[in-house]
């Protein structure tokens, strides 16, 4: 059997056999026979244009490109006959004709330079001058005098990122590659993913960090610490310093691609204001102190609190930016050392509605499918997600599918990048997801487009659901959501008929008073059409931070322990596991903690990696709460806004480059974080701090861990679904839970034969109650807040990198019609006012927002848009309604 798939070939006189379907170049790489491949990149289809990889096949005098030619049985291949080498040399000589030799000498490691040296051509090169270098971009230099027309930059920009920045103009000798900018590269439509610089064989497009930091001595494979996609990166290191980052080409997640943050925005880790000593604030002044003193001080203050006000006077927050191991320990600390269930993390403000809705209906509160389903889907329902900016690698993969003809249905009040590719853009009024999705379900039922068999075999509650949903005609919904019934019908038919259909959703669904119901509405659509439990289908939240899925799954949630085990049911199991009595009362979530602090009931908080005062809505009210606390500990890399204003103790931590552990990405993949460099003296990894604190507080026995692996092994005991995931099995690219046994391969697709909840899932009829936050004469516009590509959340990291040179503020996006009425001009500073507060920010006049709606990001601390946002929150899990605040916008002069 096996033999049939093997092909026998003779290469340079030696016999080999390989699996069929490979190119000659593929097999040359395997046997380490090196030929120049100047137009080749394994991430791209072979172009066979440089003609340097030519080989002789079956003694045919016509040489064939090895990148394009498939191996065949009996093939006789010669790679280095003198005539072939002469031919290659001739081609390289032509390429070198006008090439600046000085750069060959300065950067001998560049692919093209290597071959010039190898064929002894450097010494015969003329002393051509370098071109003028375009230094305008913060991360890349461009010198097209080094362009050899391999077009790798053009192709990678089109085929990996889908951005089309680089173009070929002119013909013959005048042929050249230019960006789509009229002047400097920085003014092009480039999104700074760096793929062109990454593939360029000459340095015509070059990373500035190569020039600044030189070549790495070695590289370490690890995971990006920004968003929940979990891209795998190869970090270059020299003398305990990071020199640069490349994408791991064989990663199933990012397949050799990265975005601007993952690839370039790492210099926060060497920022001069990084905190590298514990500090205590006494009489209003920060004092540097020793770990010994800081930890004893914390312990003494926390013990006082417990003594005077009980354990529930303390609230603890884990960090969606820290590892599973860090988060496992912090919730264990809350429950065993302090004795409270008051533990939460910022999953609360993000996708908690997703977790709730999906676990209620399906039994597991996590993505049903994997990123590899993207290439299997025919239709994409992209609901309230600005994927191209916030999960750029997933966005790029979906864009490539759209280019190949897949259907995109975008549900977003704004025009996002995807809307250019969409067959349907349902540009609904913000806050009206439920009527829209209900109407889609109505069409699917009314027109009989549902999956009859799936409903018969795997669904319950059908009759009741049908009864409620039939009222939701597109005409009725259209009056509320402002999408034409024709578009609603068209999109519904497309989603139901052109299967497999996959859904990705984001905060445009969850951050509403009906957030949990919004996700339920999406699950209903998938269930109706049988788009669940199969390849290329499912309901897939694009989770926020690198480890937000993990931090809540580890138990940083007042109502569940590790592995989503409900506190009310599993207390005794965890008491046995942790060998200690546990609190059984209901703990407070973050909004409840803040409310309790306002009332004086919560006295103290320990916050790991979460800039609460800056990122929670209605900042004035948040600050009122935090000001009321008697004691606050912040554990972070930087003196973030919350620390600066409210903390009493600051505990400095190692970055993700300086520690070990695991992250969990959006597709339930546990990935290994590997230590790249040693941390600065004076900082510790989060888990080490927690262990030390437990020791000081007299609970050392429960926290005897000398490595993250030991912590993970305890997690495996606590949570059956990850028992099979050992550290050893995490190389190279991790495993997706459920993975209950050591020989289990992990799970790419959930709910295949039955749902986690049982053999049938129940459709949820959903009523629509609009948010109380509505426009009025005084506040006539709706502000939506969200994200853009270059900055990340609280901005503590990206504002400490050259990303700030690309974008250095939040903008207020306003429709031209509204701008005209208020009399606002582009870039003018405008005042924005809600009943909660006000701030000022520069205006962008932007027809991609709806009339009557505004959009702003929340990353800049001077703008601090959360002074304005509404504190209303989701009915089930209290996720704030960041997407809707009634405001007015004024000219500064009118103030
Ligand atoms: N560059 C960058 N990437 C990030 C982050 C970042 O700060 N910067 N943050 C990370 C985090 S923590 C998260 S949670 C994710 C979030 O990623 P996304 O979910 O993409 O986040 P947002 O930009 O907040 O909102 C998404 C979209 O929802 C739309 N929207 C608003 N209201 C509605 C509505 O009523 N209905 C519908 N259907 N859509 C609506 C908005 O117009 C917006 O385009 O991104 C992660 N990735
Ligand atoms: N107006 C508005 N506000 C929003 C949102 C919105 O859409 N609109 N979105 C909300 C959402 S979805 C989210 S997730 C929150 C995000 O809010 P935050 O969680 O506050 O934001 P982050 O920037 O992700 O990081 C928090 C902190 O973690 C620190 N950090 C990074 N790595 C580590 C580590 O390994 N250990 C420790 N101890 N600290 C570390 C960073 O320095 C930073 O101070 O914002 C919310 N706020
Ligand atoms: Mo988030």
Q: What's the arrangement of secondary structure elements?
A:
Blueprint: E1 6-11, E2 14-19, H1 24-30, E3 54-57, E4 64-65, E5 75-78, H2 82-96, H3 101-106, H4 111-118, E6 140-142, H5 152-161, E7 166-169, E8 176-179, H6 195-199, E9 205-207, H7 208-213, E10 218-223, E11 232-238, E12 241-247, H8 260-264, E13 279-282, E14 285-288, H9 291-309, E15 314-317, H10 324-338, E16 343-344, H11 352-361, E17 379-383, H12 387-390, H13 392-403, E18 407-411, E19 424-426, H14 433-446, H15 452-458, E20 459-460, H16 462-469, H17 474-481, H18 485-497, E21 501-505, H19 507-510, H20 515-528, E22 538-541, H21 548-553, E23 560-561, E24 565-566, H22 567-578, H23 590-598, E25 604-608, H24 612-615, H25 619-627, E26 631-636, H26 641-646, E27 649-652, E28 661-664, E29 669-673, H27 686-696, H28 708-718, E30 735-736, E31 761-762, E32 781-786, H29 803-806, E33 812-814, H30 816-822, E34 829-833, E35 838-845, E36 853-857, E37 885-891
The chain binds ligand MGD (2 copies) and molybdenum atom.
């Amino acid at each position: 059997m096996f033999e049939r798939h093997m092909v026998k070939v003779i290469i340079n006189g030696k016999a080999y056999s390989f699996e069929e379907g490979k190119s000659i170049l593929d097999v040359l790489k395997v046997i380490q026979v090196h030929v120049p491949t100047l137009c080749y990149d394994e991430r791209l289809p072979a172009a066979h244009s440089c003609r340097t990889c030519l080989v002789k096949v079956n003694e045919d005098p016509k040489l064939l490109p090895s990148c394009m030619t498939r191996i065949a049985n009996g093939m006789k291949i010669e790679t280095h006959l003198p005539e072939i080498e002469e031919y290659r040399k001739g081609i390289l000589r032509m390429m070198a004709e006008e090439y600046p030799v000085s750069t060959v000498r300065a950067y001998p490691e560049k692919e093209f330079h290597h071959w010039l040296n190898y064929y002894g051509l450097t010494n015969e090169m003329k002393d051509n001058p370098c071109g003028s270098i375009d230094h305008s971009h913060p991360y890349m230099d461009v010198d097209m005098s080094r362009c050899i027309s391999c077009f790798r930059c053009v192709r990678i920009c089109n085929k990996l990122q889908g951005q089309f920045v680089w173009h070929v103009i002119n013909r013959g000798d005048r042929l050249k590659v230019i960006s789509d900018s009229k002047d400097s590269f920085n003014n092009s439509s480039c999104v700074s993913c760096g793929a062109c610089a990454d593939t360029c064989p000459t340095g015509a497009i070059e990373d500035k960090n190569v020039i600044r930091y030189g070549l790495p001595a070695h590289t370490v494979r690890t995971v990006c610490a920004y968003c929940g996609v979990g891209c795998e990166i190869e970090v270059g290191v020299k003398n305990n310093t990071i020199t640069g980052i490349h994408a791991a080409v064989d990663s199933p997640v990012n397949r050799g691609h990265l975005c601007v943050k993952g690839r370039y925005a790492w210099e926060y880790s060497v920022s001069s204001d990084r905190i590298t000593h514990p500090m205590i604030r006494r009489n209003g002044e920060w004092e540097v102190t020793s770990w010994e003193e800081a930890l004893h001080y914390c312990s003494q203050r926390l013990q006082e609190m417990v003594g005077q006000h009980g354990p529930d006077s303390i609230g603890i927050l884990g960090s969606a930016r820290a590892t599973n191991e860090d988060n496992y320990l912090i919730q264990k600390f809350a429950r065993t050392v302090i004795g409270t269930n008051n533990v939460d993390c910022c999953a609360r403000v993000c996708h908690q509605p997703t977790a709730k809705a999906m676990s209620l209906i399906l039994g597991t509160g996590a993505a049903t499918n994997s990123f590899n389903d993207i290439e299997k889907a025919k239709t994409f329902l992209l609901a309230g997600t600005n994927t191209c900016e916030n999960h750029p690698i997933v966005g790029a993969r979906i864009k490539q599918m759209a280019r190949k003809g897949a259907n995109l249905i975008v549900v977003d009040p704004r025009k996002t990048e995807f809307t250019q590719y969409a067959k349907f853009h349902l540009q609904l009024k913000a806050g009206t997801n439920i009527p829209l999705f209900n109407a889609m379900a109505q069409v699917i039922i009314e027109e009989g487009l549902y999956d009859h068999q799936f409903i018969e075999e795997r669904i319950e509650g059908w009759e009741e659901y049908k009864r409620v949903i039939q009222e939701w005609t597109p005409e009725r919904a259209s009056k509320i959501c402002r999408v034409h019934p024709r578009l609603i019908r068209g999109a519904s038919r497309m989603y139901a008929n052109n299967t497999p259909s996959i859904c990705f959703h984001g905060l445009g669904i969850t951050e509403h008073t009906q957030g949990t119901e919004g996700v339920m509405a999406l699950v209903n659509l998938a269930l109706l059409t049988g788009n669940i439990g199969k390849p290329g289908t499912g309901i897939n939240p694009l989770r926020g931070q690198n480890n937000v899925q993990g931090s809540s799954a580890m138990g940083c949630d007042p109502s569940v322990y590790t592995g989503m085990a409900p506190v009310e049911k599993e207390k005794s199991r965890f008491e046995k596991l942790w060998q200690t009595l546990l609190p059984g009362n209901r703990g407070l979530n973050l909004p409840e903690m803040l409310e309790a602090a306002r009332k004086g009931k919560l006295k103290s908080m320990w916050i790991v990696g979460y800039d609460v005062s800056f990122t929670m809505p209605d900042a004035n009210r948040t600050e009122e709460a935090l000001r009321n606390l008697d004691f606050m500990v912040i554990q972070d890399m930087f003196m973030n806004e919350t620390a600066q204003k409210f903390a009493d103790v600051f505990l400095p931590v190692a970055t993700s480059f300086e520690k070990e552990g695991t992250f969990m990405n959006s597709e339930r993949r546990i990935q290994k974080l590997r230590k790249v460099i040693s941390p600065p003296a004076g900082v510790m990894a989060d888990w080490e701090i927690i262990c030390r604190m437990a020791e000081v507080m007299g609970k050392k026995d429960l926290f005897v861990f000398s490595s993250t692996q030991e912590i993970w092994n305890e997690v495996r005991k606590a949570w059956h679904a990850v028992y099979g995931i050992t550290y050893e099995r995490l190389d190279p690219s991790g495993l997706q839970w459920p993975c209950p046994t050591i020989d289990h391969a992990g799970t790419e697709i959930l709910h295949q034969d039955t749902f986690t909840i049982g053999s049938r899932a129940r459709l949820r009829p959903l009523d629509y109650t609009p948010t109380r936050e509505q426009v009025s004469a005084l506040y006539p516009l709706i502000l939506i807040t969200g994200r853009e590509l270059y900055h990340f959340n609280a901005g503590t990291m990206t504002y400490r990198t050259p990303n700030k040179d690309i974008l250095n503020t939040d903008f207020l996006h306003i429709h031209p019609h509204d701008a005209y009425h208020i009399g606002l001009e582009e870039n003018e500073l405008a005042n924005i006012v809600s009943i909660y507060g006000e701030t000022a920010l520069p205006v962008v006049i932007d027809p991609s927002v709806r009339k009557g709606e505004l959009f702003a990001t929340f990353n800049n601390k001077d703008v601090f848009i959360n002074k304005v946002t509404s504190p209303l929150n989701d009915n089930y899990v209290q996720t704030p309604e960041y997407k809707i605040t009634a405001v007015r916008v004024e000219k500064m002069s009118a103030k």
